[in-house]
Amino acid sequence: MKLFLFTLLFLGSVLAISSCKYESETNMNSEEMEQERQVRAFKKLSAGEISEAAFEKGKEIKELILSKKDSFSIDDCHKDFQNLLDEKTSDLVIEAKIVCDAADLKEEKAKMVWEAYTYNIQNEIALEDNLQEINGSFYYTIPKMMEGNLSILLIKIDKKKLIVSL
What is the pLDDT of residues 41-99, one digit of tens each? Predict the structure, then answer.
């Protein structure tokens, strides 16, 4: 009888200890799940915040390209520079190339950016990077003078992928 009571007491203790441990693991999992849910929760971003993030990402990509290729020449026209990007950045970039002629730009808004750069050159106004949203993508443009002619380093950023990455 004593052995039976001792066994019963022992099994009861083991059961009580294991159930307490299981409960604390469940609580930890619940806390971890809540943290994960908060991380994955939708964030409401304004158009301005998205544009600002696109401009910053464009600058980051520009620096990455310029760190690997310090100068450009007319021979670089139409070359694709996505191979200079790391895997994470490359996923956001649809296109990264040098445009040496406005005729190479398909979208009217992109041609207007070219015309604005041309106007700035003619009126001796400083050339600065530009960001435009065109057809669901961001066009980050960096003006360059190559052999006396205007060229643009065009970085086309996928808007949807950018938003997801924020």
Answer: 667 888 899 999 999 999 999 999 888 877 777 788 888 888 888 888 888 999 999 99
Instruction: Give the distance between the most distant pair of CA atoms in the chain.
Output: 106
Contacts of 129 (CB under 8 A, 6+ apart): 55, 58, 59, 62, 140, 141, 142, 143
H-type alpha helices, 41-84: 47-68
pTM of this structure: 0.71
C-alpha–C-alpha distance, residues 15 and 23, integer Å: 12
Residue 23: band (very low, low, confident or very high) from pLDDT cuts 50, 70, 90: very low
Q: Report yes or no: 148 and 75 within 8 Å, Cβ to Cβ.
A: no
Q: What is the DSSP letter of 125?
A: P
So what's the pLDDT on residue 30?
76
Cβ–Cβ under 8 Å, residues 156 and 107? no
Burial string for 131-154 (b: 16+ CB within 10 Å, else e) reads bbebeebbbbbbbbebeeebbbbb
